[in-house]
Design goal:
mainly alpha, two-stranded antiparallel ribbon, MetI-like fold
């Protein structure tokens, strides 16, 4: 009965999604009016002269030496942001899932340790974490290991692989410091999302699976997590989008991502509004694609549930 109710609610939600109300039209009109008013005030009130014609050359440029089109500052920063965000999402999801499972452990010591990590991380500003990890990991540990020197001794194909997946060896220490910081920070939020998803599963599910002779690991793997995953997709999607936006913080340690490149370009060209509007649109493309992908995933999981035959 619960599955039938779930599918009926999904069908009703799909019907509401594609219906346009008077409130929707009013919001669109207000937003459009605000944009027009903003452009008018900037043009007339600040006597600002728009110059959009130069922006494309900072996205891509033609290299006369190679005879090919190549990425310029903004696209280079965009690609770095994509790399940093993707690695953070993957590693923070793994860390958050493990910590979320430990948060529901029967052992009080384990729960206390994980809760301490979550509370400490979530209650420290991410900018402070960036500086702490950069000066500790980047300046101390990475220098002690000599990560850049080690990469320099590897074959050219491996250096190219590292540059493609992460960044060049000259900026690798700072990039890894930023990546570790974001993984720890975002992982604390994902930990709580996973914990809430597991604890939202009815107690009867645990009891029924235990009565079937399953161990706790088997219960989590085969019974609890498949249900919890469907429930945590919306908040996880929001956290992934937040991760993309939070990646802008690492510009303070000279990671050449999108925000850093935007600041450099603005200081050189004084095209304040053109540069930041372009960067805003590029961030919007990233977050919109992430949101669309998660909606598709959520829809597929729901369709799979609704397509499963019920045995009454």
């Amino acid at each position: 009965m619960r599955a039938i109710s779930y599918c009926m609610e999904r069908q009703s939600a799909m019907e509401r999604r594609f219906s346009i109300t008077t409130l929707d039209v009013a919001v669109y009109v207000i937003v459009t009016g605000a944009i027009v008013f903003f452009v008018h005030r900037v043009t007339t009130g600040l006597n600002y002269h728009w110059n959009w014609s130069v922006i494309p050359q900072y996205l891509v440029r033609y290299d006369e030496q190679t005879g090919r089109w190549t990425m310029n500052l903004l696209m280079q920063g965009f690609i770095t942001t994509v790399k940093l965000s993707l690695w953070t999402i993957v590693l923070a999801t793994i860390l958050g899932t493990v910590m979320g499972l430990l948060r529901t452990s029967h052992r009080p010591v384990v729960r206390l340790a994980v809760r301490t990590y979550v509370e400490l991380t979530r209650n420290i500003p991410p900018l402070v974490l960036i500086f702490i990890f950069y000066f500790f990991i980047g300046e101390q540990i990475m220098s002690l290991i000599g990560i850049e020197r080690l990469i320099g001794r590897t074959p050219p194909w491996f250096q190219g692989l590292v540059s493609t997946l992460f960044t060049g060896k000259e900026n690798l220490s700072a990039f890894l410091s930023a990546l570790i910081t974001l993984v720890i920070y975002e992982g604390s939020y994902i930990t709580e999302i996973i914990r809430a998803g597991i604890e939202s599963i009815e107690k009867g599910q645990w009891e029924a699976s235990a009565a079937s002779g399953l161990t706790r690991i088997q219960q989590v793997r085969h019974v609890i997590m498949p249900q919890a995953v469907r429930r945590v997709i919306p908040p996880i999607a929001g956290q992934f989008i937040s991760t993309i936006k939070d990646s802008a913080i690492v510009s303070v340690i000279s990671i050449q991502e999108l925000t850093f490149q935007g600041m450099e370009l603005m200081s050189a060209t004084y095209l304040t509004f053109e540069v930041w509007i372009t960067i805003t649109l590029m961030y919007f493309v990233l977050t919109a694609l992430c949101s669309f992908a998660m909606q598709r995933l959520e829809g597929r999981l729901r369709d799979k549930v609704c397509a499963t035959p019920l045995h009454l």
